[in-house]
Structure formats: structure tokens, C-alpha cells
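Just scan this pair:

***
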Amino acid sequence: MKTITIVIPAYNEEKNILPLVESIKNHFPRERYLYELIFVDDGSIDGTLNQIKETTKHDDSIFYLELSRNFGHQNALKAGLDYATGDCAISMDCDMQHPPRLINNLIEKWEEGYDIVYTRREDNQNASFLKRKTSTTYYNLLNWLAEVKIEKGTADFRLMDRRVIDIFTQFQENDLFIRGLIPWLGFKQIAIDYEPEKRLSGKTKYSFRKMFILAISGITSLSIRPLYSAIYFGLAASALAIIAIPIILMSYNPHRHIAFLLACNLTTIVFFGGIQLTVLGTIGLYIGKTFLQVKHRPIYIVRKSKLPKKH
């Protein structure tokens, strides 16, 4: 029988562990496949790790990785996939928003010959207008700047064939953005649409600040086009400044020349200062990423583990 690995990063999800395990067991086609669950505790400070260890006592197919601290969702997900031994691996979140009932659908598409089966979240009408609008704007901006196209609503709920996993484990990028790397990999892919469930317990770990950092990370990890955009931005600003010269001269008033000159100077300084900071910030971001990458530090550290044996 083929083995399916299910990788689940967890950070302060104490009350979601047992319900998630039960739901996976209820929906997993155990009559046709073997399964192994690998929980990755990403430095939780509540009872998440204890709950995970408790489940391993009652099911020999459940395993765990305990990271030495919180390394972030993407790195925790990478850690779980690095240790997956199944013929394919399914990654999903621990908050029950990725419905386990879709596991069978993912496997069916895999058996049809697809190497990657990813999920595409349908618009949540319960979300605020601002959140839906910013999400749409982000994906439009990302696809304009990035070298690969990422469909709106794609999530880290996906199935990857063993061949894809073996290649993915070779990645050692310091700043991971997995949902951008998946379309970059190529292979035969297909999407499944789904409606996210409500979070079972706890609060979302993605604050506005973390979402903003993830958005910037996604853009800068996939392409250097923002650097080209900075050049275009600078050239456009210079062109506007040249066009503005005759307008400023025509509006000159000799009776108010001091105030006029002060306003012109202040506007010019602020305008070009803002452009310079934007361009330097963009360049600095890429230099910073390079600085972190060349250190070759591990993207996660495992403190303790209980892992499946290699098949």
C-alpha cells in the first residue's frame, strides 16, 4: 500500500490538535492507503507539544518535530516536508480552516497523474471589504512584479508527489515563500477550489504586520523586478521634475517670491527625498536578503523528534 504523509505546522494550537487528528482519521481513506502524520511544533508556548506527544502514545502513525524556537510557518512547513517519507505529502494548517474532508479529493487527483494538487480558497464573503480588497491588490501586484504567476486564494494546503518533495527538500532559501516556489517548480499541477472553515479555536497567528512582511517577502523572493521598477520610478520622477519647471516659472509672483521659493524648495526636497528612500530601501532589502543567505545558517533547528522510519 502507498503511504501518504500529512505535514501539519503548529504554533499555540493546543485545543485544535485532538479535533484535527480525529477529523483526519475520519476522512482519510485508510482502507486504501497507509498514513503518517508529522506535527511540527514551531516553538509553541502553550500545551501544544504535550497534546501532540499524547496523540503519539495512542497512534503509531503520528510523529512530531519539536523546533528549538519559533522559526515561522514557512520554515516549519519545510521542516516537516524534509522528514516526510511517504509516496506523497499533504501539507495543511492546524486550525481546521483547511478541511480534512478534501484529503480524499487531493489523493484522487494525484492518482490521476498530477504531481502537485493545490487548493484555491474561494472568496470569503464574511471577510471585511478592506481585507478582500487588499488581498486582490496584493495578488495583482505580486503577479505584475514576480516572474511566476500565483493564483489568487492559493494556500499552503496542497499535495506534492515524492518526486517534487525530493527536489523541494534541496531548497535552502533563507526567506521561504512556498506558495510562490510551487508554481516555479513546474510539473503537472491542478487546483481544487474550497471554502475555508471557521477557525476551531485560538486566534490567527498572522497579524497585519506579519501579513505585510509575508507580502514583501513573496515579492522579493520571486523576482528582481522591483529593482527595475525602482529605476523606472526614478526616471519618471525626473521627467515630472523637468515638466514642472516651466509651470513653476509661469506661476512666479514677484510680490510673494520668498514664500514661493520656500514652497518650491520644500516640495522638491520632500518629493525627491521620498523617491531616494524608496529606491535605497528596495536595494537595501535585496542586499539584506543576500547577507542573510550567505551566512548559510539553518532555516530551522530540531530540538527533539519522533520520526517515521524510511520506507
Remarks:
- The chain has two domains: 3-201+298-306, 225-294.
